[in-house]
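#onboarding

Welcome to the new folks! Below is a worked example of what a typical request in this channel looks like: someone posts a single protein sequence, and someone else replies with the predicted structure as tokens. Don't worry about understanding the tokens yet, we'll cover that in week two.

Example request:
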Amino acid sequence: MISMLAATVAATSGCRQREAAAARPSSQGTAATAVDSTLPREEALRRFREGTDSVTELAGGAPSRDALIRAFVKALESRDSAAFRSLTMTRNEYAWIYYPTTPQGLPPYDLAPGLLWFMLETRGRIGLQKALEQRGGQKLRMVRSACDGKPSVEGDNVIWGPCTVTRRQDRGDLITERLFGPIIERHGRFKFVNYANKLD
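Example response:
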């Protein structure tokens, strides 16, 4: 995931210099994300956190990685939008739990909190849309799931991925797919960082 984000940083570094500073609450009470690459990291994070609630643990999600993936598959089969929301990292969790220790927010990447959130949220939204269009409402017949390699330990967080689902197709053969993005584990609770995937 780091190499993919590094490529995005290179592609967007020019426009980052021209973006306005700060994440400030709008009149509707939501935060409009903007980035100023000249702000110190601590100040950028403070501004991004404006309008969020301080949290120290993940809420919702699942008690195990396998349970989380099975819940996602069930939600995809039933096209359950409420379930998708409960299984993925929220803005509050990102601001107070994920961003402070993720390598993408630290040297040498130094992605501002607003920019990284925008990237994660956008890729996740596109990924979920593709998953629903291509697999939503189908009986997926999941056989197993697996996550490659060793997880990344980031403070109290453990980040798993890339992860895959192996399922049985109608004609009986098996197919292995990446249907979602990384998984964050914290103190025995598991959620998806986002729903970015490798579907065409």
